[in-house]
Amino acid sequence: MVIGTIFGNRRGHVWLCFQHDRLATKPLLLLELSVPTHQLVKEMKFGLVRIALECTRPEFRSCPLRSVPVWTMNCNGKKLGFAARRKVSERNRQMLKTMQSTTVGAGVIPAGVGSPEEVMYMRANYEHVVGSANSESFHLINPDEWEGQELGVFLIRSC
């Protein structure tokens, strides 16, 4: 199990972060998605979200899957641009520190607390599944068997 946090400014892009635990300062994976926050929120209203990140570039065939720097992004079968692996910036670190006390939940962090704009977020436990050297996935674990949001993130290398 890992902790997954999706966050972004209302008018900005989405960030996706997976950590071994909520207090970890170095994420397992940090991605900036090209999809605007409001568009992902709209997709999430339907309860089922599948984010497929695919690497098709042969030059990244030999690197570890989570080290691939750029991905083609599909959400619920629609191509929505790209995702890029990022190093943690001071702003990201401050945002994750602000959310350290949150184990699971969703909400809005007011402007001025680590960001000049309001930041929308969703944090939950995810099951991390390694299928092979070319496929991994993260599946949202709903608390208390609640049939609410269903979200999966898939990393696939097809080159």
Describe the structure.
With 159 residues, the chain is mainly β. Helices cover 11% and strands 50% of the residues. The chain has two helices and ten strands, in the order E-E-E-H-E-E-E-H-E-E-E-E. A nine-stranded mixed barrel has the order 1-2-3-6-5-4-10-9-8. The two termini are 28 Å apart.
Q: Outline of this structure?
A:
This is Protein MIZU-KUSSEI 1-like. It comes from Linum tenue. The chain has 159 residues and is mainly beta.
Topology, pairings included?
Layout: E1 2-9, E2 13-19, E3 29-36, H1 37-44, E4 48-55, E5 70-75, E6 78-85, H2 90-98, E7 105-109, E8 119-132, E9 135-141, E10 150-157
Parallel strand pairs: 4-10
Antiparallel strand pairs: 1-2, 1-8, 2-3, 3-6, 4-5, 5-6, 7-8, 8-9, 9-10
Order of helices and strands: EEEHEEEHEEEE
How much helicity do the residues have?
A: 10-25%
Strand percentage, roughly? over 45%
Spatial order of strands in the largest sheet: 1-2-3-6-5-4-10-9-8
**Mean pLDDT across all amino acids:** 90
Shape: globular
What is the CA-atom radius of gyration, in angstroms?
15 Å
Which structural class fits the helix and strand makeup? Answer: mainly beta
Low-confidence stretches: none
